[in-house]
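Ticket reopened. Same input as before:
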Amino acid sequence: MNNTFYLNKRLEEWQPEMSIRNLLDKKEYNFRMLVIKIDNKLIKKSDYDTAIIPLHADVQILHLMSGG
Amino acid sequence: MQREEFYKDHDPKVLKAISGAVIGIAGAGGLGSNAAVALARAGVGKLIIVDFDRVSASNLNRQYYFAEQVGSYKVEALKKTLKRINPWSEYEIHIKRLDQELIEEIFEGVDIIIEAFDQAEAKQMLIETWDESFADIPLIVGSGIGGIGENNKLRQTSSGRLYLIGDGVSDVEQGYKPLAPRVGAVACMQANLALELLITKFYKRK
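Engineering reply: fixed in the latest deploy. New output:
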């Protein structure tokens, strides 16, 4: 339980220096557009490579679908 | 028709809370046009609607336009329709393609923003701009409106003041075709949430 963080309210194993991009690759998320928040702070798409997930973080990932 | 007749069946407490409100609507397609009509009928004080596009024949399967409006700018056609429904609300329209700068300029001071773009990239741009400039007001995004049926999959999720409405799955660019019933349902859910948030805010202040 120590080396964990929350992804959409489920516990995930945390790894040092894990970026949002690493997480998306690991989880095989293939939606083109996402809303991603770390501890309620929105992460811009341009920052996915550099945004590092802190230990015990609360990460939210929501899919964004086209159509309007 | 007199104003009093139009508002005869409105709840006075609701009307009081929304008649001074301003809602920004980004996009006047399937989501934006249907949400605008619902909000005009409800009696929201002012709608600011932005879209650069013109009405095409293929829009008529889901967007609140009429055959004789094909070729017209959407926001101009929509304003005429809204005035025919409720001439006592105010409708500010902009024939523009929204970018970050314009979003900040046009939507400054609104109480709520309804996202009604077609492209997911545009939705993401609006969300990122809202986060920088408007994060203290609610943003209601449509996400997942394609297909038919499956009413029970339409839902509302939220994170702070960001709300997503739709099934979260049916991507129009991935082959899910949008049709009036489901698009209209999501648009009305966006409008319904907007009213709820306005009323909650109004009576919390008192």
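The first strand of chain A starts at residue 4 and ends at 7. The interface with chain B takes residues 31-33, 35, 37, 40, 42, 44-45, 60, 62-68 of chain A (CB under 8 Å). Please confirm and we'll close it.
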